[in-house]
Amino acid sequence: MNQSMRTVFRAGSRLAGHPRVWPAFLLLGGLVAVTAPITTGLSPVLDVLCRGLGQGVSALAVVAGVHRHGLGGSRPWRLMRAAVVLAWAATTLGWGIGWVWLHSAVSMELYRLGTLAAYGLSLVALVFLSLQVRGVRWAGLLDGGIICVGVAMPLWALLLGPAVGQGDRPGTGFFLALATPVIDLFACGVIARMALDHDRAPWLRLLSASYIVLFIADGAYLLDQVADRPVGPAATVGWLGWAVLVGAAALHPSVAGTRRERPAAVCGRGRARIFLALALLSPLVSVLGQLLIHADLTPHPHNGIV
């Protein structure tokens, strides 16, 4: 049994190194993610199978890609691999089997805790990836923090603040919905800073797209929670899309270059323009957004969020 499993794993690892595997995986996985709202709406069983199998195949792609490209000794990719596997296990076991089929409240709490742990592991993995530079390593995190603060101001003014002000919410469920966009925000800030160093590497483009999609999905899920409605199609597509894009990034041949340290990006006009735009536009968007929200005199149940 063990010998057959090793044989299957080696075959999958060799297949992962083929240059046409990652676009095929991205195309098929994207198709599954886009059609997931239709499939999951038919029955709870199909909902569990779609999300469980989708994230499971993506987790296998990350494991095979890490092994194929010699990243097993890389701490960031070990953490990313653990995050994707943990997210799949929490979704399949905690949410799918425990909550949907067995209606166990304990399993639902374990699903939420496992999901938060997976988010935390992926953020730590991104931080370690951003530190793989020669020179002053922590300067990149400072730049990422500046980007996070610049995006956080309108995010709080237009989304998180109104959501918190909607009244009392149930404990861990609303906390999960509120915490995940915040973690996504930090992740996007770190990735934006990494993009300045990696010179638009293909694997980083896929990874950046995955966290942008995840941020949109978690924001949509927060709106669903505030409105007391079921999980919408945007959240479902985004969660599966994140897993597919991370799997495609791990399968891309260019990811093998992350084993080596890279020189830190030289400060130039492009980076100065980004930081200046954030410093000027972030407060402006926050203030104008609040003015537009309060300018509408027609009462709406969720005026502050919309």
UniProtKB/TrEMBL annotation:
Keyword Magnesium in record: no
Organism domain of life: Bacteria
Transmembrane portions of the chain: 21-39, 45-67, 79-101, 113-131, 138-161, 173-196, 203-223, 235-253, 274-293
Keyword tags: Membrane, Transmembrane, Transmembrane helix
Protein name per Swiss-Prot or TrEMBL: Uncharacterized protein
